[in-house]
Write a structure and sequence with these properties.
Layout (H helix, E strand, L loop, with lengths): L1 H18 L7 E5 L4 H13 L2 E8 L5 H16 L4 E5 L2 H7 L4 H19 L4 E3 L4 H14 L12 E2 L2 E2 L7 H10 L16 H16 L3 H30 L1 E3 L2 E5 H4 L5 H9 L6 H8 L8 E3 L3 E5 L3 E6 L7 E4 L5 E2 L5 E6 L13 E5 L7 E5 L5 E2 L8 E2 H7 L4 H5 L2 E4 L5 E4 L3 E2 L12 E6 L5
Parallel strand pairs: 1-2, 1-4, 2-3, 4-6
Antiparallel strand pairs: 5-6, 7-8, 8-11, 9-10, 10-11, 12-16, 13-14, 14-22, 15-22, 16-19, 17-18, 19-20, 20-21
Helix pairs in contact: 2-7, 4-5, 6-8, 6-9, 11-12
């Protein structure tokens, strides 16, 4: 028995060293539920002499069983003389509030907790107890739900600061290790409930595959390793295509529609190019069908894509429209978010020339401080210089043939009472013009050419 245990521990150590998963001196936070997988991981870390602490989440989903798990993990931490970090969540309330499934809510909660704990207590990595069977189940879950090549590699051994040191081991090997070493653990009864897709695959599909191919676990491990290698080659090709197609300007990305139409296979290329911006396959397909619809918008949680005349334009969503920059009286120059120079003149003019769109001359007595620099809103109106009536700013932009992203880059200089003084770099409001009653003027220069 000891010889078998020693081999398993040796395999564990060799895997950590050969893959460079982490250094033996690194401080590691172990995600421990109290189940057999995380208990075995804890035992291996302890026997290997690694520097580690334990993190445990009580999701309050199984009544007293959840509290019993928490108590048991506390016992493990005390037994191994390591620090424990624990937290209790109202998972059902969180899932309802954020419109998530219980599984999604629990995952989000625990990984946020792991990340916060690791940062606050200087853990280099967070280790989870996923093993080879988990990776196989993930492969089939992704296959059933639909996925790209990345979803078929199973579970990566390392993802940011998350490491999975048990991936080389099967569920059976972990069970045998726990039995040989007489390790106590808590069994989660929900693991046998087939309401969850993962359980259906583990209980129904995997045994059937083992009847067909007794070595299916080893075969799948090799398959996923090959797919991971193929994905790396694929990813390199996508990166090269991204370098060719993406043009960066003013914080936005432009992709020529003529180049998109030349891509073969177009849907696959565009999905891979846009997936990092939060766009899924159906949205990418709709985008490709809308390349001739100038002005069409597509939104993800983080980005906006607009179909412009010759390009699609990708912009990072931000709260930029809600940001306002105040300019106190007496300011001579600002550089953020754009460069404006203010020059007061104790002279009067009978007329206000506006031959230079980047310079205005205004009646200084009509300005109320602090001035505000902000983005335009759909309800904004102003009286363009030289006109009697008012116009919506959005209509003024349309008259000047500005694209959606050109509009988004425009700034409004406003009075303290909210009245628009100047659409910077375009037109001032006629109210602020210099006339026969003007006693003092102010010149404002726009010197930033990145509008």
């Amino acid at each position: 028995m000891f010889y078998q245990m020693d081999i398993l521990l040796q395999r564990f150590l060799e895997h950590v060293r050969n893959t460079g998963l982490f250094c033996e001196s690194d401080k590691i936070l172990l995600a421990v539920s109290g189940g057999i997988d995380s208990v075995v991981m804890t035992d291996l870390f302890a026997k290997a002499g690694f520097n580690f602490g334990i993190a445990h989440c009580n999701f309050q989903l199984r009544g007293t069983d959840s509290d019993s798990d928490e108590e048991f993990v506390g016992y493990l931490a005390k037994k191994n003389q390591v620090t424990i970090h624990k937290i209790t969540f109202d998972t059902q309330a969180y899932a309802k509030e954020h419109k998530l499934s219980i599984e999604e809510a629990a995952r989000e909660l625990r990984y946020n907790f792991f990340d916060k704990t690791a940062r606050e207590h200087s853990y280099r990595y967070v280790a989870t107890a996923h093993h080879n069977n988990d990776a196989i189940e993930t492969f089939f879950i992704n296959l059933i739900r639909g996925t790209g090549i990345a979803g078929l590699r199973g579970i990566p051994q390392k993802n940011g600061n998350i490491v999975r040191p048990l991936l080389p081991f099967s569920r059976q090997e972990i069970f045998e290790y726990a039995s040989r070493n007489q390790l106590p653990y808590h069994e989660d009864y929900t693991n046998s409930e087939t309401v969850f897709l993962r359980n259906k695959i583990r209980i129904g599909l995997i045994p059937l595959l083992k009847e067909i191919s007794p070595n299916i676990e080893q075969t799948m491990r090799h398959n996923m390793a090959h797919i991971a290698d193929a994905e790396q080659i694929f990813r390199n090709s996508i990166d090269e295509k991204r370098q060719q197609l993406f043009r960066h300007s003013d914080g936005m990305i432009f992709v020529a529609k003529s180049q998109i139409r030349k891509l073969l296979p177009c849907n696959t290329y565009m999905f891979e190019l846009l997936r990092d911006f939060g766009f899924n396959a159906p949205t990418v397909n709709d985008l490709l069908l809308s390349l001739d619809n100038t002005g069409k918008c597509f939104l993800s949680a983080t980005h906006t894509i607009v179909v412009d005349r010759h390009d699609i334009v990708i912009k990072n969503n931000s709260n930029e429209k809600s940001i306002e920059y105040q300019i106190p009286e007496g300011t001579e120059k600002i550089h953020n978010p754009i460069t404006l120079i203010f020059k007061e003149l104790n002279t009067a003019y009978t007329e206000t020339p506006q031959s230079d769109k980047n310079t205005i001359t205004a009646d200084a007595d009509k300005l109320q401080y602090p001035l505000t620099l902000r983005k335009w809103q759909p309800s904004d109106r102003f009286r363009p210089f030289g006109m009697k009536g008012t116009r919506k700013v959005s209509d003024f932009f349309k008259d000047n043939h500005l694209s959606l992203f050109e509009k988004a880059k425009k700034w409004l200089l406003c009075n303290a009472d909210g009245k628009i003084i100047w659409i910077v770099g375009m037109r001032m409001d006629d109210f602020f013009r210099v006339d026969k009653h003007t006693k003092k003027t102010i010149e404002i220069f726009f010197t930033n050419n990145t509008l």
